[in-house]
């Protein structure tokens, strides 16, 4: 009877609290995400363009989207869904991911995706900086203290240990406190400089990461960057619509997804054009920049191929620790 029970199709359901204290060091997450980009560039993984559906009630400003993908390294299929009512509301934002094991043909896990996104997004930022920042980059500015930004500076410093100056533009007290405490946990001997003047901080930083809301500051322009600067937009409303056109070299994690979520950055023809996609840069098929003086603009949009390995690592550790519930939805 026990053997029959274990053969029943079942999935492990993991809540946000189940995963809260599951450790995934920045270096490990960066490695998982970079390997996912390599697998995709080599044709071993699949990642169709994100499906996004704005809802008709403009007063609520709600958005919903889904992603489907296959990680060829892990041989896992993933389905991710997100819904948010109000583009600025973190309280009514719900995101989940389902994993299916393609080697056994069985479901593996269904879980909250908040922690996954909060890990793979800064990992992607760090990978962009690693491959696209100028060779002697020594300073980085983080704009925003939301869920996408809290882990960014420790991940950047992990990927680029030669960074000397780390800056943060502060907006929300709770976000500032969490950003500082998160950074101190990873780098207790380093300090973050809090800044007030965004244009000045952009002009004096080699790497600028914008993951902020639309009203927190003057919208960032690529033209503010000094020669050789790198501006990374993490789905940021705080970046000027002309930022793409102002760049000497433009990249995206995925050009197709930029056409879905980054249309406002397009040129006069309404179509965003980029010089290279991140997976090809990681694989050495395209350069991260043409010269050390290029002002580079990078549009970071989540690809589920990077969610899958991070979710799998979290789920595997959570299940091994006895977290979550095994549910037989199909019996």
From TrEMBL:
Annotated keywords: NAD
Query: Where are the annotated coiled coils located?
Result: none
Tell me which GO cellular component terms the UniProt record holds: cytoplasm
Q: Does the keyword Cell wall biogenesis/degradation apply?
A: no
Question: What InterPro entries would the database entry show?
Answer: NAD(P)-bd_dom_sf, ODC_Mu_crystall, ODC_N
Q: Pfam families, from UniProt?
A: OCD_Mu_crystall
Keyword Iron (UniProt): no
The entry assigns this protein to a family as follows: Belongs to the ornithine cyclodeaminase/mu-crystallin family.
Protein name in the entry: Ornithine cyclodeaminase
Organism of derivation: Xaviernesmea rhizosphaerae
